[in-house]
Amino acid sequence: MHVEAREKLYEGKAKIVYETNQPGVIIQYFKDDATAFNALKKGTIVGKGVINNRMSAALFEVLQRARVPTHFLRTLSDREMLCHRLDIIKIETIVRNIVAGSLAKRTGLEEGTPIKQPIVELYYKSDALGDPMLNDDHVRMLRLATPGELAWMKRTALKINSILRPHLARRGLLLVDFKLEFGRRGRKLYLGDEISPDTCRLWDSRSKERLDKDRFRRDLGGVEEAYQEVFRRLVTEPHGPDSGHRRSNAGSRIPLQ
Ligand SMILES: Nc1ncnc2c1ncn2[C@@H]1O[C@H](COP(=O)(O)OP(=O)(O)OP(=O)(O)O)[C@@H](O)[C@H]1O
Ligand SMILES: [Mg+2]
User: How many angstroms separate the CA atoms of 202 and 232, rounded?
Assistant: First the structure.
């Protein structure tokens, strides 16, 4: 059936969500706009929308093959993805494998410290409040999710980590941490939103070069090149053990830090 975009449902910082002529089906349109620190810092990362759309699609397919329910239906174009409409749960679920960002600040541990057993963190999806961290009791108090839903979200987040971490490692990428959004559709929960260098910290396995939005946040330069490099390793190259490594060391123009 032919799909057409209808009413704009929501315009966020990175994407626009449209209703379609099919009930319960939306289009996510990926923009090049970039923000950080709760939109205090704004900019453009040329080509980001295309990369985030294509990369998210590729990873949603990997997860679906492993029986993780995702909202992804199909890719419509370079910047558009067709998805099930979800009632998004106002919790950002973070999984961490290596200490970075706010966890380094909060604990005093050095960025790059490995975490033996992956950590799951919950944040309140509220721009007005600056996305504060929550625990299970706060989630219950705010009625953001039932205890059963929360348990499923945490379990599924760790399952997603156990699928994506080796998948990315085979492409020369360290999955440092990432953010997930889940939502309800009928009586079931699904993974929604996106999985991209905007929502994951990805480091080159060998050099530990940052290949994600931290380049933008921290003014490290080579932002577009980093997104392109991740895209090349994940989407445009035939897979092979370590295929990412060799090429990137030969041709990378991303400044090392
Ligand atoms: N399948 C879906 N159905 C409905 N909404 C979705 C779905 N997947 C993602 N969303 C929501 O669509 C919006 C995507 O836009 P974007 O990522 O630009 O938002 P944002 O600027 O990060 O703001 P927000 O704080 O609302 O996430 C988000 O609010 C996200 O929660
Ligand atoms: Mg978002």
Answer: 14
Q: Residue 12 is part of which domain span?
A: 5-84
Distance 30 CA to ligand 2 centre (A): 10
CATH assignment at residue 42 = 3.30.200.20
Q: pLDDT by residue (tens digit) across 166-209? A: 999 999 999 999 999 999 999 999 999 999 999 999 999 999 99
- On whether residue 255 sits in a domain, the answer given is no
Name the residue of 28, 60, 198, 213 to mutate for ligand 1: max ligand atoms within 8 A of Cβ. Answer: 28
Same domain membership, residue 95 and residue 74: no
